[in-house]
Design goal:
Elements (H helix, E strand, L loop, with lengths): L13 H6 L5 E8 L10 H14 L3 E9 L15 H12 L4 E4 L9 H13 L4 E4 L2 E4 L3 H35 L10 E5 L6 E6 L4 E4 L5 E4 L1 H13 L4 H10 L12 H8 L7 E4 L2 E5 L8 H20 L14 E2 L6 E5 L2 H5 L5 E5 L6 E2 L1 H16 L4 H11 L5 H22 L5 H26 L12 H6 L4 H11 L3 E2 L14 E2 L2 H5 L3
Parallel strand pairs: 1-2, 1-3, 3-4, 12-16
Antiparallel strand pairs: 4-5, 6-7, 8-9, 10-11, 13-14, 14-15, 16-17
Helix pairs in contact: 6-9, 7-8, 9-14, 12-14, 13-14
């Protein structure tokens, strides 16, 4: 359908326009971005003020256009700056509608000089020469009027630039000081000065809530306890989905007051605010002015475990696995997960096992279940039994940039003080009794730091497995899913194709990643 064309009248000057009265048709435009403090005019207020100005001049309204919650500065995203009614206004101007454009102030049309220039040129080229801004009439054919409008447009852009600069400086100050910003993390409550609104403190939320279980029983909980529970369970390889389902079954609402989801649990597990860190766009930028709910060693350990299992757990089809390495090992040819696959009737008739492992991607490789399982378990247990495994894990942890140098520095300082004690006693500066007390305290400090390093370097689920009795401890694990998770974390096995050689030893086809791949053999 072709656009309707209007014949726009031409007025000699501003006086002629004002004297024409009802012959003049006005286009009214209003825009507002988000203004939570209600310090500026709303769109409805702007249109009302425009109508008052139009009525006072005895003109008639030819069209009203408005965009609500729409920013117009270059600091907003291009998508958020899209304005449907502003585009309709441009089409109306092109079609010849209206004799004057009415706005409460210049910033309503734009806060970018480029947009102002576009709108000005569009009006001029299409014969809409008159603008009314803040109750004053301007003629685009008059250089002084164009200059005045241009200055107003510059002021509108400069104002929002100044606001952006001040906001940025304020944010940088918040980051440097470690003050929190945005929503209060689940498990905390934030306190502000009643008069100024300035941040004062962020403390653990120990408010008691009552949850009603499906069977009608009640549970008293705090959000602080729920956060600690989430980290505790994740470190024991309980999936984020299982945790979410459990919280939902207990009637405990999520941070948003709705049902828990896997994503909500994982977002808590990856938020460094829970170790007292100030985070900006996902990166730790400073120490926060609040205490962490969990210790750094717990947080980093949980984070590593969560990332280790996220991919494989989402790939599964949602039922319990029967086979140890199904979706716990990968094809060495294409990288797809290995899965269990049923053999045909001929293989069964030949006495072979009805199930084998095959590549889930392109069927690149396959393996007998018993041979693959046995070899991987033997290598895993042998690796966990190594005498140097603790030192190797600490080395790997340091290479992965987990902060353990604080504990190592504490150990070095305490050991240096221990070495200095005999000299202090000989010099008569301290007594033998005092030296004994100091030695006991330093040994306790060293032991505590060593325990902290061990907790960071060795995931909690492996604590009992690492050592000479690893084989016995492995046999004591009856939970198949737990075994599979440990294999994915520690061994991450891959198996290559046999290259048409069915007798190729399994050891020549299997390689390891995970912790075993990250450490020297």
């Amino acid at each position: 359908m072709a656009a309707i064309a209007f014949q726009r009248r031409v007025w000699e000057n501003k006086i002629a326009l004002l004297l024409a009265g009802a012959e003049v048709e006005a286009l009214s435009y209003g825009r507002a971005s988000k203004d939570k403090k209600k310090e500026k005019y709303s769109v409805a207020q702007q249109l009302r003020m425009n109508r008052e100005n139009i009525t006072q001049a005895s003109w008639i309204v030819a069209g009203e256009f408005s965009d609500n919650d729409k920013p117009a500065s270059r600091h907003a995203s291009e998508k958020s700056r899209q304005r449907a009614d502003f585009d309709r206004l441009l089409l109306a101007i092109k079609s010849g509608r209206g004799d004057v454009l009415v706005m409460t102030d210049m910033s309503r049309s734009q806060r970018m000089l480029g947009v102002f220039a576009m709108l000005r040129d569009l009006c001029y080229d299409n014969g809409l020469f008159f603008w009314m801004v803040e109750g004053n009439v301007y003629d685009l054919r008059v250089s002084a009027d164009r200059a005045s409008l241009g200055q107003q447009a510059l002021n509108a852009e400069s104002q929002v630039d100044s606001i952006s600069d001040n906001t940025s400086r304020g944010l940088q100050g918040q980051i440097a000081d470690g003050r929190p910003q945005g929503k209060v993390p689940y498990g905390y409550e934030r306190f502000k000065n009643r008069k100024t609104g300035a941040f004062e403190s962020q403390l653990f939320d120990m408010t008691q809530h009552v949850a009603i279980h499906a069977d009608g029983t009640e549970e008293i909980y705090t959000t602080y306890q729920i956060v600690r529970e989430i980290f505790w369970k994740l470190r024991r390889l309980i999936t984020a989905k299982a945790i979410a389902n459990d919280l939902n079954s207990r009637g405990i609402p999520s941070p948003g007051g709705k049902r828990w989801s896997r994503q909500t649990v994982e977002s808590i597990a990856s938020n460094a605010a829970y170790i007292g860190k100030r985070v900006h766009f996902g990166d730790i930028v400073s120490e926060g002015q609040w205490e962490g709910i969990v210790e750094p060693k717990v947080f980093y350990n949980t984070l590593a475990l969560t990332y280790a299992f996220t991919d494989s757990r989402r790939t599964g089809r949602g039922f319990a696995r029967k086979w140890l390495l199904s979706y716990a090992s990968r094809c060495g040819e294409c990288g797809a997960w290995m899965k269990s696959s049923h053999r045909g009737a001929k293989a069964k008739a030949a006495g072979r096992k009805p199930v084998k492992y095959t590549c889930s991607g392109h069927n690149c490789s396959g393996a007998e279940i018993d041979a693959f399982d046995s070899y991987v378990e033997a290598c895993l247990v042998s690796w966990l039994s190594r005498k140097d495994i603790y030192e190797q894990l600490v080395s790997l942890t340091a290479r992965q940039n987990v902060n353990i140098d604080v504990y190592e520095t504490a150990i070095a300082e305490a050991q240096a003080e221990l070495r200095a004690l005999p000299g202090l006693v000989t010099a008569g500066k301290i007594s033998v009794s005092l030296a004994g007390d100091i030695e006991a305290g330093l040994n306790s400090k060293i032991s505590g730091a060593q325990d902290a390093i061990r907790a960071v370097a060795i995931p909690e689920v492996l604590m009992d497995l690492v050592g000479p009795d690893a084989a016995e401890q492995w046999e004591n694990i009856a939970d198949l899913e737990l075994r599979r998770d440990i294999i994915k974390l520690v061994a991450a096995p891959t198996i290559r194709a046999a290259n048409k050689n069915p007798r190729m030893p399994i050891a020549e086809r299997v390689s390891f990643g995970g912790m075993m791949g990250g450490l020297a053999a």
